Amino acid sequence: MALDRTDVAKIAHLARLEVAEADLDHYAAELSNILTLVEQMNAVDTGGVEPMAHPLHMAQRLRPDAVTEADRREAFQAIAPATQDGLYLVPKVIE
Amino acid sequence: MHEQSITELAAGLREKGFSSRELTEHYLARIERLDPALNSYITVSADTALAAADAADARIAAGDAGPLTGIPIAHKDIFLTEGLKTTCGSRMLDNFVAPFDATVVERLAAAGVVVLGKLNMDEFAMGSSNETSYYGPVRNPWDTTRVPGGSSGGSAAAVAAGLCAAASGTDTGGSIRQPAAFCGITGIKPTYGRCSRWGMIAFASSLDQAGVLTRSAADAALLLGAMAGFDERDSTSASEPVPDYGATLTDDIAGLRIGLPKEYFGEGLDAGVEASVRAGLAELEKLGASITDISLPNAPLSVPAYYVVAPAECSSNLARFDGVRYGHRCEAPQDLEDLYKRSRAEGFGAEVKRRIMIGTYALSAGYFDAYYLKAQQLRHLIADDFRRAFEQVDLIMGPTTPTTAFPLGAKTDDPVAMYLNDIYTIATNLAGLPGLSVPVAPVDGLPVGLQMIGNYFAEGRLLNVAHRLQQATDWHRAVPPGFA
Fold first, then answer.
1. Whether B151 is catalytic
2. Is the ipTM of this structure higher than 0.85?
3. B192 touches chain A (CB under 8 A)
């Protein structure tokens, strides 16, 4: 499937990536080439084949709903771009 | 000292031929002198390395040393190291000092290793040449105009050049085996779930697996034994007990049944690489192994399936980089959407953006069945091919890569050509199987890797067969000129 610049702009928005107008055609060509590679999958009929979710077919392990980790809020917030009073700061969302 | 095996180095430390401090200083001096030509390290942690070396020397003096105590290694910069910058090769994490250690880092530290620093890699482990790193490409010590492979390119180059005794790595589609092959060293990707993924920055969670790059299979057995095992903090960690890999290293391999998939010896395989791989196989026959032709009919579709599964999981995993909690944030964001979009656009390089977009597209409404579901079905067929093959043979072998290391820049303008470099390694990740690459005879002065694939949790058998090959041959002892 060939993608055009409108498709790329839409995908970039969904992925929250800013892509300059000037780069849209370039990405469209590159992504289309990758999809051409990917579509070789269609050579095989996979009707009725179970999709493989885990290489070892392991079921997800469960653990008791109990606190096991120490509170390390200060260490984790020390590496944040902007915090105040233990909260992460972002541009104003609600007027 | 740097040309010795870990076992030899450990004996030197124990018998007081030299101290861990002297050994660590030796590697630090080599890094300072030789790494400018390679760019294999992103961060060198001299101070903490020397402190760890002193602690190791104290343990050795107290008679409390294990086989890895005081051995200088380095970690791929994808593993979180508390208090030490962890970049994952990305501008996004250029300012990121990890607040905790990865399980793999923690376990090796408990075994007493000295960490010399953090090794260069393709950005977020996405690449096959180490050219997507924000910190610049790594060069191959055998020919510095060529790539070392990727994504664990820094790990492979540093081990081959004697800039650390061994290195950790990760392998999502060949990222340990392919650079090990290009740099002439030994690399093992264990079974999915064998080593904990806790604190290993996620790329494609159903494929990612930690492993090691070393000078020999015996060294790999020592390190893997210390790293592997169940970890409560990784929900996909395998509970299978870890055997003593050292205990089976020298087992006889007479009667070993080796399968050669015809799909790994077809069009696209360089004739010199094929001859070298067949010469390696002939050595195994001399040791009593028998060789059978087999087929993995769906293996050729592993690259297309991988370029759906890996980007889909990458787009989901990398959504966490939002410019809010850690990592790069753009200047003066207008609003929250602008903050997300510009922080991500500035923080990620071109290959990471391509994969995020392919993954976002494959998972978007209306396309899920055609791409992701189809790829997961193919994955099942590929795993079934291996299952049937392992009813006939003990190990599957072939080339690790179709060619030797290519020149820097040769494939950077053509993502699809770059992807096809992993044509022989990807199927193993899709099936979750362990794989190992060992050096065989070089072609035109460039290393060649022989790949061995085992059944689930057959790491011990892979290391055993690789070790027997290395006892009978000396290809793994070759040192790149200029790095002796």
1. yes
2. yes
3. yes
